[in-house]
Structure formats: structure tokens, C-alpha cells
Amino acid sequence: MAAKRHPIFDTATTLGKLMLFLGVSAVCGVMVAGLMVPAVALAGNTANASINFFEQLPDDMNVGVPAQSSKILASDGSLLATFYDQNRTEVALDAISPFMKNAIVAIEDARYYEHGGIDTKGLLRAVVSMVQGGGRQGASTITQQYVNNVIIQTLEAAGQGDQAKIGYDKTAGDKVREIKLAIAMEKKYSKDEILQGYLNWVFFANNNYGIEAASTYYFGVHAKDLTLPQAALLAGVVNRPSYYDPVTNPDNALSRRNMVLGNMLEQKMIDQAQHDEAVAAPVGLKVTPSVNGCTTAVRGEYFCQYVSNLIANDPAYGKTREAREKLLNQGGLTITTTLDPGLQDAAQSTFEGFTPVANNPDKVGQALVTVQPATGKILAMAQNTKLNAPEGQWSSAYNFAVDSVDKQGNSLGGSGGFDVGSTIKPFTFAEWLNSGHKINEVVNGAVRRYPTSHKWTNTCGTTSGSYDSSDPVNADPDLQNAEGDYYRSLTAREGLYNSLNTATIASADKLDMCNIQKMMTAAGIHEGSDPNKPYDLSNVSSLLGSGEVSPLTMATAFATFASGGVHCNPVALVSIANAKGEQLPVPGPDCQQSIKPEVAAGVVSVLQDVLARGSGYQVPLKFPAGAKTGTTNISEQTWTTGFTKGLVTSSWVGSPEGKSRSNNGLLIAGQRIGYVDGATYAGKAWQQYMNAVAGNFDTGSFPQPPASIVNPPAPPPAAPKDKDGKATAPPSPPAAEKKKD
């Protein structure tokens, strides 16, 4: 960094010279008054009045940090999306090509390293030009331009752009104030510091602010890599950005570029050979359009939307939503997320074989979301729509994977979840084990009628609901299973892996609904429309999946089982750094042992049976895995949520816009079939995706449940019978074994 240079003239001396010039000609004095000094300042008879006025003007200006673009990054540091009001990336002076530094000085302020903030020669030349009829000229140095840019762009960043004055809107007083501020800035900062600030603040057209953004946009290179003709072209733009824009006015830009090169040659910044070669070079644009917001995300646009909502909703990033959005769009944040690009791309590509983004006439929705057990990290969040789709593709503003609002009621952009069907059944089974029942304990799956008079135990609320086709008033159908030959007594294990409704309800009939609900809450299950509401068990049918839950919530809940009972809140943010590199707080997963390890192990062991011999036998993985399928009454919503030791993925296929529409007969995977269940498409998509990606994470075996929760105690031996078949009293023990009184 060059040493600080003090102004050649102090403020009084500088203005004194200007006033001396005013005395040369009355006409000149009038013209300078129009350019520089308010009429009140020249009303006196001496220059001292003007000097006194000038000295009383404020000379402090807080440059601050310019509005900078924020970046959302994947877990590997790759770019997902950029947010900005002013597209700018601030860089140090040594990260800017020397050609650029010389070119901007050559065309904008040849005596930059000689003056003290204002160029008296240029100023007097401007006055003479006006006197001679040449029109108003700016006579602005780089320092004055920097002051002007800071004032205007600071107002724009504050939403007060209408107060900014440019060109002929400025009063003489405005111009004098800029001169005073420029002189003060030269006292405070070195020439290199001012040049660096100027090149980071100046506007280059097409919403590009600063040299780094302009270099990337026009040539696809960093500012440090600009060639001589490229630097000269960009230096020429700043004088009149629209007129010299090389995209819309290439001839004007080329002419201006060559003028810059001529100035550089005249000022001996380049030699004749360099000049001639650069003048002969084509404009050579390689326009790389800047992207802004989630609609232009490189990948994971709905995950991007989720992340941006997390930031906009969190008071840790500002007192109001407006302040938080301003921070995102102007604060130069570097937001590193949990998204794994490999998993995200694999999830997104999976849809092509089922519900393609570009060929889905029935608008069948599909989503995959993956979390990591014991960390809560969201590794993938994909769906088969776009936020702003081109013609022929399906646009949706809703994120199928997440809740509609957060715990404070702020929007997350989500659909609010879908009826989960039988994927909810493992939580009743978990409470079955938690309350002391056994995996292989027998339940009566033959019971199909539960009349309205049936009392469901619920110590913290009320549960109603009936299954009784004989009731002439309610006419509820009897409880049904998807398969017709399972209406019998069987083990709780068989009931779950075969997804039998009668087994689930028979189990729940022996439990407290309050405790089932608590088990669901311990795993993270809640209503998709309001995360503050536990899963609603006011009707017994909810135990079979008539409640709406989001795919992210389901994945997080199953991760609680896969991690041995450790529940973690889902997290999308790894770190957030502001433009100064300071770390901002990010919410953690708050991992806690919410379910007993032995209970989690018991559930996992049966969910592995689902893939081996149960409802998901068609979609096994090549790794140790467990899963649960789910299908609502007429296949409106279909699910498979499952896991390996290292990944948990919830796969959903359904109708987001008309949640009551059946998937049966719709065009999915290039065919229309009469019955669609959880394994048909949601399961096969889950299988394809998990087989492709799970091997990169832990695929080890799960711990076996302890024997104490597997089998119920053996029944006592039957009493002996006499010859008539009547039970007899057991023989008395030997006298020595009798209990003493």
C-alpha cells in the first residue's frame, strides 16, 4: 500500500486560488458560482466570506462497507446461489490488474497522484470551457467521484435512492460539499486506499458494481486477470455506463476503449506496440450473466429457498424481516450449508425415471429429502418442479419437503405436508415397546369392529373414532387391511412389517394415546401446518396416517430410530460469515437421547423386516437398511421413508395441488396403472437413489435389540388333569421346601 499523500493545498489555500481566479473575470466568477458555490456564499464582497463558508462545511463521511452480494454455498464450498441488490464483490487493490488501475487513472484523472482531492487545473479548464460556451463540465477527480458514488449508493442501499442527486440535479452547494469531502478524504486515506475504494464502488452498467463484478460479467475472468484491452474497455464504461455499455452499444464502447488506450500511451503507461496490439483487438466479450436469488440457483433451488427463509425469519440476523432481508441482499454474507452436491444431483436426476420435470402432464408431485442421523444435517432436498420454470415445465412456489411455517409462524415456503399413511405406524410400535410390550408379543389382528362406544385411553386429551359397519347411524366401515388374509392373531412384529391396520389398532387399544403422541413428539413428529402442534390423535384414524406431515419431518423422525434414539433437529446452516469475515450464529441440531436405545433398536429390527419380507419387499437395498411404506386410502399420497446407518431419506409421490386426488391411473414412469402404493413409485425412487449414494456413508449393521424386549415370557405350564379332563391341584412340595410361617 502506497504511503499516505497529503493534499498539495489545504482547504483555505485551494479555495483562495479559486477565488483569485474568480477575480480575473466577473463572467468567470458567475460561472464558477453556478458550478461550485451557493449564491449566498458569493454575496459578500471578499473571498473571505466564501472561504469561511467553505471551512464551516462538514468534512466527515463514513465510507463504511459497500453493499455486497451474498453467496449460499454447498457443504463443499461450491456456489448454490447469489443474492444482491447491487452486484458487487469487494477485492483488494493487489487483486486488480495493473492495466485496470492505470486505465482508470488515464481516462478519469490523469493528475490523480499529483492533486489533493480536487484538480485545480481541471476545474479552471472547466470554468473556461463554460465561459467559452462549451457547456457544463464535471471537473471531477477520482476522489470526488468516489465521494459521489459513496453518497449515492449508500442512499440506494438504505432505500432512499430518490434522495440521490446526479448530474444537473445537484445544486452548487452539493458540489462544494463534495469538494470539501474529497479534500478531507485525501487527508484521511492514501491514494491507493482511495483508488481501491473507487474501483470497488463504481458502477459498470448491467447492475454490476465494482471491478470484480464487471470483470466476471463482461469477460468471465477475475479483476486480477484483465488484459490491457479488457481493462481499457471497462475503464471507458464508467463515464456514461449506458452509452458505453459494450453489450448494447459495442461501437461506442470500442471507440471509448481506444480513447483510453490513447491516453495510456500519451501518459507513458504503455508503449506503442502495446497500444497498437490492443487497439487492433476485438471487443471480445464473454458475457456471463449474473444470477440473483434462488430461481437461478446452480442446484437445490428449493433448498436455497428454505435457507433464505431461515435467515429472513431469524431475529439473530436483524430486528425486523426487512433488516434481515437487507443483510442477505447487501451484507456480503458467505453462507455455508449442509447440502451435499453429489446427493442433491442424484436425487434430482432420480425424477427423470418417474415424474420428469419437462414431461409430467398430470402434474404428479415427487420429492426426496435426505438427512444424516445423529447430526440433523440436510444433505439433499429435491423435487420435480421449478420455482420459475420455462414454458412446458411445472412451476411451483411451494417446497414439497418442508413445513408451511416455522415455530414463530413465519413462512418457510412449504406445502405443509401430506397425509403420511402407514409410515406413521412405527411410532405406535415404538410406544408398544416403550410401555413394556414385546416385539413378538401376540396381538389380535382379527378385530375389525370398534363401535362408537369404545373407549380409547388418552390421559392428556380425548380420542374418538370408530370402525363399525353395523352402526346404522355412523355407518363407519369395518377396519380393513390392504391384504385380505391377515385377519388373525399374530405378533406385533408381523403386524408392523406387513403394515396391518388391525394389528396397529389392536396394539394401540392396549396403550395410552397420550404416550403414543409423546413418542411421536420425541422423534420430532408434528403437524406440517404448525410445528408447535403435536401430531393430532383426537381421532384414532390418525394412527393409520390421516395426519399431514412434511417429508423433512418424516426423515428426521426416522433418523431418530436409525441413530439409536438420538433425535436431532434438522439443520441446513453450517456457518455464516459477514463481509468482514466475522462469524454470525447459526442454530444447532440440539441432539438429545429422546427414545431409549433398546426401543430404537427394536423398531429398526422390524423395519429391516419390511424390506426383507414385508410391505417393502420389492425395494430392498444392497446395504443393511430399514424402511416403512405408506399409502393413503385411495392412493392420494404414497411414501417410502427408510434408512441405512449413515443416511435417512423420505420419498414422496402424490398430488400437491389437489391433495385428495388419487395417483391411480396417472402417468408415472411412462405408464398408467390401476393401483399405486407406497412401494410402487415412491419406494422404487427411494431404492434407486439410496443404492446410488448410501455407499458413500456408513452402511454398517444395526445393533440387535436386547432379548428382554423381543419375546414375551413363556406361559406357565398347564395344570395336570384327571381322567375326566378336570384340572387337579399341583402336588405339594416336599416338607423341607415348605415355607415357614
Describe the structure.
Residues 368-642 form the Penicillin-binding protein transpeptidase domain. Its EC number is 2.4.-.-. This is Transglycosylase domain-containing protein. The termini are far apart. Residues 1-47, 49-54, 133-137 and 733-741 have low confidence and may be disordered. It is built from 22 helices and 18 strands. It has a 5-stranded mixed β-sheet. Strands 5-4-18-17-16 form a 5-stranded antiparallel β-sheet, sandwiched between helices. It is 35% helix and 10% strand. α4 (98-108) runs parallel beside α10 (228-237) and α6 (142-157) crosses α8. The longest helix is centred in the first third of the chain and has 17 residues, at 172-188. The protein has 741 residues and is of the alpha+beta class. The chain has helices at 11-24, 26-35, 47-56, 98-108, 120-131, 142-157, 172-188, 191-201, 211-219, 228-237, 250-266, 272-280, 301-313, 321-330, 341-350, 425-434, 492-497, 501-508, 513-523, 551-562, 597-613, 679-693; strands spanning 70-73, 79-83, 334-337, 365-371, 378-383, 418-419, 442-444, 489-491, 526-527, 530-534, 548-549, 566-567, 573-577, 583-584, 592-593, 626-631, 637-643, 648-654. The chain has a domain at 11-56 and 87-280: Biosynthetic peptidoglycan transglycosylase-like (Penicillin binding protein transpeptidase fold, Orthogonal Bundle).
